[in-house]
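pipeline/complex-builder :: batch 7 item 3
reading input block
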Amino acid sequence: MELEKSYDAKKFEDDIYTAWEASGAFAPEGCPCTDPDKKPFTISMPPPNATGQLHLGHATMLAIEDIMIRYHRMQGHPTLWLPGTDHAAIATQSMVERKLQVEGIEKPREELGREKLLEEIQKFIDISQNNIKTQTRKMGSSCDWTREKYTMDPDLANAVHTMFQNMLEDGLIYRGYRSINWDPKMQTTVADDEVDHVTKNATFYYFQYGPFVIGTARPETKFGDKIVVVHPDDERYKEYHGKSFEVEWINGPIQCTVIPDEVVDPEFGTGVMTITPAHSLVDFELAQKHPDKIEITQIIDFEGKMLPIAGEFEGMDIFECRKALVEKMEKKGLLVRIDKEYEHQLAVNYRGKGVIEPQVMRQWFIDVNKKVIDWKNKKQSIKEVLQDVINSEMIEIIPDRFNKTYFHWIDNLRDWCISRQIWWGHRIPMWYKLTKEQHDKYIAYPNQSSYLLDVIKVEDPGTYGLKPPAENTDTEFYIQDPDTLDTWFSSALWTFSTLGWPNHTEDFKKFHPTTVMETGYDILFFWIARMILASTYALRRDGLPEEKCIPFEKVYLHGMIRDKDGKKMSKARPETCINPLEVIEKYGTDAVRLSLIIGATPGNDMNLYEEKIAGYRNFVNKIWNSARFVLMNVENINAPLDPSTFSTADKWVLSKTNEIIREATKEIQNHQFSPAGNKIYEFLWGTCCDWYIEMSKVTKNEAVLMHVLKTVLKLLHPFTPYVTEVLWGQLKEAGCTEAKTMLITTPWPEANPEYDFSDEQEDIEKAIEVIREIRHLRSENKVDPVKKIKAVLSGGHLIDIMREKEGVILQMANLSELEIHDEPQNIEDAISSVLHGTSIDLPLADMIDPEKELSRLTKEKENLDKFIQTIEGKLSNEGFVNGAPPKVIQKQRTNLEEAKEKLQKITSLLEKIK
RNA sequence: GGGGGAUUAGCUCAGCUGGCUAGAGCGCUACAUUGACAUUGUAGAGGUCAGUGGUUCAAGUCCACUAUCUCCCACCA
C-alpha cells in the first residue's frame, strides 16, 4: 500500500472532520483517553457574529484554541470547547437595513415597523448562521457541537432576564440621563465607535457676553447658556468666581453665573466658555459635576429643529438658525469678530454621514460604584471587584502588560450604558404606564425608540416584567421599553449562561470557571472586563465562593493579523486581503493554521502573506513524505523497541525525541505556541528528515523509525490535525496496533528516561559536523558533487564513532573511500581542516589551488586568533572568574582548549603550504 | 495630551528570567536530479542587534534619554 507522492489536503479534510465529529471525540464524555480525575480544561469559544464571514481574526482564534484543546484532550483532561454564535445587534440590524435599502425600502424601520423588520432579520440570520458554523468546521476546530449556543436562544434569554432582574433588585441598574450621539437624519443613536471624525474648516464666532468674550463654532446652541466657566487659576477672571449677574444676550437679558473648573484651557480662545450640556458631551459631564448649579435644557429637537427656547428662531434648522442668529447679534453689537480659519473635527455617522447632534436622553445604566457585591468579607463595587481579580492574581492576563491597559480603563470607567436604540436584540424587560393621549401619540411614531418617551413626557419609572404588569384599560396603556440591551450585556454572561446558568447544572459545576479565555486584545474592554463583571456579580450573588465566581482563570490575548506591509487588511485594498477560506482551499487547513501560529507572539500583531502559507504547505508535505518513507521501508510495523539493537544514531534520535517531547510540552503549557511549533518543525525537517532518515538509508532500525514517526505525529497533531490524522489512519491500515484509535484521542507522548543518551547524542552531532565539513570543503574547492572522492580522518576522540558511522559518512559526504586512523597522519597535497581534534584531509592533489587554500586557512587563523583573544580576555578577568556561574566558565575553558588545538593544526597546515 | 507596542540579514520575524564567535523561513548566489519529497537536496553570501549614555565581570537581552514607525484611550468650547 503506497501513499501518493504529495499530500492533497482537499482529498481528506472533510472526511476526517466528519469522522472526528461522528466519533464523539469533541465532547468531554466521548473521548476514550480522558481521565475523569484530571482537572477539566474548558474554553468558551468567543462567539462569532451569526451573520459573519470567517475572517483571519476568527481563524487565528480557532487555531490557537484548537491547539490548546487538542493538547489537553490528549493529555487526558476532560476537555470542553463550547462553540456558539452571537446575535451582534447593531452590526446585524444595520446589515439587514442596508440590504433592504438596496432592495428599495428606503426607511426600513418606518416602512416595515418593528415586527416585520425583526422577521426580516430572523430570516437573514437563519440563512447566514450556518455559514459561520461550516466555516468554523473548515478550520478543523474540535469543539463540542452538541453543546452549541446562540445568544438569542431561549435559555440564554432567560439568563439575560435573570441578570437584569437581579441587578435591578440590587439597585445596580437604574435609568438616567446621558449625552449620546444622535443622528437627526437617520433618527437613531450612534455608538461612540461608529462616529467618524472629519476634519473640516469652520467659522468661529466671538460674542460679547457681559464682561467676557466667548468663542464658539456653534452659536445656535447658545440660547440657554447661563453658566460661564473659567479656569480656577486664570488670573484674568478670578474676581468673577461664583458671581452671578445679568448680561445682554440673544433674546434679551439673562442671569449668568461664573464657575471655575479645570476643564477650561486658558490658552484656548479667550479662556472663557459658556456651556450647553444638552448638546455637548463635555458640557454634559461638567453639568454632572455641578448638578446643583447647572440645568440641562434641550435647545434642538430630535429632528434637528430649534425648540421654543430659541424664540423667533423656533422651527428653523440649525444652519438657517446659525446664519440668522449671527446677523441678529451683529445688529445688537454683540458680535466681536469672526475667525474663518478654524479647523475642527466634525462628528458624523459613519453610516449615511449624517452630522451628529449630541442629545441628552434617558438610558438604562449599570452602576459601577455601588457597593453591593459581597466580596472578600466586605461589600464592594463592580469597579473594586474588577480591580481585585487582577490584583489578587485570580485571573492572569497573557501577556501581562495588558494589566496596565486594563487598570487604566477601569480607572476611567463610568456607569455602563446598557440600552441601545435598535430593535434587534434582547428587549429591555421594563414596562411603562401611559395615558390614552400619550399612547395615541406614541403609536403614531413608526420608528419606536426610547426618545419618544421623553417626547411624550412619560414620567413612569417603569416596572420589571416579561409581560405587561396589568391589562390595558380605556385610560391606561402599558408599553414595553422600545429599546434593546447592549449586545455586550448578553455576551458578558457567555461563560456561564452557556453552561446552564441561572441553573447550577452538572455542566456548570464541572466546567466553570472556564480555564482560558482566548481572544484578540481589541475586545479586552468590550468583552473581557464585562464578563468578569457579570460573572463575579451573578455567581457571588448565588453564594458561590469567590474563586468559583471568576469567568476564567487565564486570558490569552492574540494580536491582529495584518498584511505584508503591516497595514490593516481592508476591503478597500483587496489585493492585500487574505480570505481564510480561499487559502484553505488552496493550501490546506494545516498550512493555514501553522502560518497563523508560527511567528506570532501573544498580544503582538502579525503580518501574513501568501508566501508564508505556501511555506507551511511545503512543511505539511514534508510530514507526509517522511511518513511515506517510513511506511515504504518498514516491514514489521509493530516491532518493539529493543535496546540491544540500538546503534549510536538510534540512541541519538531517541534522545532527541525525548528532548522534543519535553520542550514542546513545556512550550505549549506556557502558551508559547510559536516556539513550540517551530521546534517541532525543526525536529521533523532537520533531525528526522535531513539526518535520521538519510542515515536509515544506510542502516535502519524499524522500531526506532516507527517510534519517532508516531511521536512526531502526536506532537504535531494539535498544530496540523488533518495531515497527522490521515497518516495515523495509514498506520492503522498498515496494521499498526497503536493506531487503532484515532490520533485525536491518542495520549500525548511522554519522554522515556531510558532513552536519554547524552553521550551518544553528542557523538552523532559531532559526526554530523564532520560530514558537513567534508561537504563544505568539497564545495569550496569546486569538487564535482557527483564525483566520489577519498577522505582521511585521523586523531581525536571522534575516531570510534567515525568508524561506526563509516557507511553513513561515505554515503552522505559522497565518498569513494574513507580512511580512519587513531593517530594524526601526514597527508601530502590535501585540502585539510580540523574539527573537535580530528583532522580531515581530502587528498585531491591535482585539484588544489594553493593560493586559495592559503587565503582560506589564513582567514580561518585570523578568526581563531580573535576568538582566542576574547576568551583569554574573559578568563583573565578576575570579575568574570569570580562572578560568572561555573558552567559558563567551564564552557569558555573548553572553547579555548578546542580553539587552541585547532589553531595549532591550522598553523602547521599553513606552514606546509608555504 | 495620556498609555502601550515595535525598531535584529534584502523581506517577515525568533532570540523567555543578561553568558552568542547573533538564529530561522522566504528571497538571493552556485551546484545537484529519476530511489520519501522539486511542495526537494547540498553549499554559500548577507547583520557596528535604531542612536546616545548608564548598570554589570558580561548587554540584542536590564535602566534612562533621543529618533522613527505603529496602535489604543481622551479630545478641546
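note: The mean pLDDT of chain A is 90.
queue -> next item
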